[in-house]
Amino acid sequence: MKTLQLSLLLLLFSLAAVAQTHPDSASVPPKRFYVGIELSSISYSMWDNTKKVGGGFTPIAHAHIGYRLTKRMNVQVGLTYGRDKEDVLSGIYYGYNDTIINHYRSKDSYGVAMPLTVHFTPFNPARKVQLYATASFIPILGSTWHQNSEEYEGNRVVTFESDDAGLYAIVTAGLQLNYKINNRFEGYGKANLYYKNVNQFTEYAKQARSVSIGLNYNLNLKREKQGGFLD
């Protein structure tokens, strides 16, 4: 019996020593900064109501860096580039004496977008699976160009042309579901349910919806003081 008690005491002291050497996850200083990559179906529209000129692009991937402001709130800055370019035959018409007239539609829209995003959850931040409300303000520096033309016997004549360039902006909002894979990696899926061009009206924004999947990697640039997060 004494041998068992002594063994238990030695085991308890050993566990205490291990716990001091390797603190549990609750006492590990929080990793505030993270970087990530996101694949999204979102399209960034660029539109000027006064000029009646518009275009857009759908980038494949976004890169971002984030900061955990509190246990329940993250802020992040993203960066992406996209381009939508085409020159297609839009129709074939037969004119006088069976002459053939080809109609072409051309466009070239490209830009750089920098999403500024806030995530917030009212739920327990220690959960492995976490639901966030998310909102983004997205400045876009870009250019759009459209042209219609007709081709007859090898000669192409421009019938319509418009272009615009400058700074545009949109806002989005939705829900994001995060899954903590381990202490370093976190995966997520997002659905944008609200989309609006700032100071502009577009028919596209009425039905614009998008989904995303992404992966975050927690950085440990420096050790934070324990309890550094605000509730």
Structure described in brief:
With 231 residues, this protein is mainly beta. It has helices spanning 2-21, 203-207; strands spanning 33-40, 44-48, 53-57, 61-68, 73-94, 100-113, 116-120, 129-152, 155-180, 185-197, 210-218.
CATH topology of the domain at 30-84 and 110-142 and 167-218: Porin
SSE string: HEEEEEEEEEEHE
- In total, the number of strands is 11
Major pleated sheet? 9 strands, antiparallel
Compute the gyration radius: what is it?
27 Å
Tell me the name of the CATH class of the domain at 30-84 and 110-142 and 167-218: Mainly Beta
Distance between the termini: 48 Å
**Any idea what the CATH architecture of the domain at 30-84 and 110-142 and 167-218 is?**
Beta Barrel
Q: Show unreliable segments.
A: 1-29
Structural class: mainly beta
Number of helices: 2
Organism: Pontibacter chinhatensis
Signal peptide: 1-19
InterPro entries: Beta-barrel_OMP (IPR027385)
Protein name: Outer membrane protein beta-barrel domain-containing protein
Q: Could you give the topology of this structure?
A:
Layout: H1 2-21, E1 33-40, E2 44-48, E3 53-57, E4 61-68, E5 73-94, E6 100-113, E7 116-120, E8 129-152, E9 155-180, E10 185-197, H2 203-207, E11 210-218
Antiparallel strand pairs: 1-4, 1-11, 2-3, 4-5, 5-6, 5-7, 6-8, 7-8, 8-9, 9-10, 10-11
Index terms:
about 230 residues, nine-stranded antiparallel beta sheet, two-stranded antiparallel sheet, elongated, Beta-barrel_OMP
Q: Overview of this structure, please?
A:
This protein has helices at residues 2-21, 203-207; strands at 33-40, 44-48, 53-57, 61-68, 73-94, 100-113, 116-120, 129-152, 155-180, 185-197, 210-218. By secondary structure, the chain is mainly beta. The chain has a domain at 30-84 and 110-142 and 167-218: Beta Barrel (Porin), CATH 2.40.160. Strands 1, 4, 5, 6, 7, 8, 9, 10 and 11 form a nine-stranded antiparallel beta sheet that branches. Strands 2-3 form a two-stranded antiparallel sheet.
